[in-house]
Amino acid sequence: MRDRLPDLTACRKNDDGDTTVVVEKDHFMDDFFHQVEEIRNSIAKIAQYVEEVKKNHSIILSAPNPEGKIKEELEDLNKEIKKTANKIRTKLKSIEQSFDQDEGGNRTSVELRIRRTQHSVLSRKFVEVMTEYNEAQTLFRERSKGRIQRQLEITGKTTTDDELEEMLESGNPSIFTSDIISDSQITRQALNEIESRHKDIMKLETSIRELHEMFMDMAMFVETQGEMINNIEKNVMNAADYVEHAKEETKKAIKYQSKARRLASDDVDNGSMHVSASTAEDASSLLKPFFSGITLVMRINSQ
């Protein structure tokens, strides 16, 4: 009898090799989904910061001379938003740059499709939360400008919107306040508030300029990916339909397997070990879409 041990050992090595490849692929996608979760949490954190910013804006606008603690808290929130947004942008850029490499590598089309879809969803959510932040900043600027205009009126100085914008752009509130005689308590309070509001707007505009480039960069990316983003919901629904189709195919595959077993049993009874290759192949081909479909939907629905 021929020694089969070397053949069995070789098969086991091949099986081990195949198993290793699958594990590496799973680790790759697991790492990707972990990164997706980190980005999603960071976006949620920015959304929370934005709500806190809005609350502080309301407090500052409602008080003639808000406490320094509130302004410090607002400044800290703006810094945190900027820092977190830069980290998100870097991670999204890194994922985007990996697509070309993945297409030339051993990644499956399903993996690439999942990665691109997740990247598009995160980019859209990021732009949405940064748009909300930008709108909050713009509203705060307009309302602060309105407060300055009202305080100037209290001092007897009437200005147009264009004149007020000129003062803000120059960074010098004395354009309109230098000739105001602050001999009354009301006038002095008005001048103090004008100066305070002007400083707030200057800090605000610096923050807006710092985030403008990043915001426009991500907004342009999302615009170019608009068609993909609009089809995300459709893709998910199609995936669900695919599972239903896969169930039907699985039923057919089970029938083929049963037929294959019956044929094998008949052949054994007849003294033959021959099994229909076409029947086994049909069963195998019908099972493949079931497992690939289930994997795709589990990945999508888990997000």
From TrEMBL:
A GO BP entry: intracellular protein transport
Gene Ontology CC annotations of this record: presynaptic active zone membrane; SNARE complex; synaptic vesicle
Cellular compartment(s): Endomembrane system; Membrane
Occurrences of domain T-SNARE coiled-coil homology (ranges): 191-253
UniProt keyword Transport present: yes
GO molecular function terms noted in the UniProt entry: SNAP receptor activity; SNARE binding
Chain coiled-coil ranges: 67-98
Keyword Manganese tagged: no
Protein name: t-SNARE coiled-coil homology domain-containing protein
Transmembrane annotation, as ranges: none
InterPro entries noted in UniProt: SNARE, STX2_SNARE, Syntaxin, Syntaxin/epimorphin_CS, Syntaxin_N, T_SNARE_dom
CDD domains: SNARE_syntaxin2 (cd15882), SynN (cd00179)
Major place of residence: membrane
Family membership noted in the UniProt record: Belongs to the syntaxin family.
Keywords: Coiled coil, Membrane, Transmembrane, Transmembrane helix, Transport
Organism: Bos mutus
Record lineage: Eukaryota, Metazoa, Chordata, Craniata, Vertebrata
Lineage: superkingdom: Eukaryota
UniProt topology in membrane: Peripheral membrane protein; Single-pass type IV membrane protein
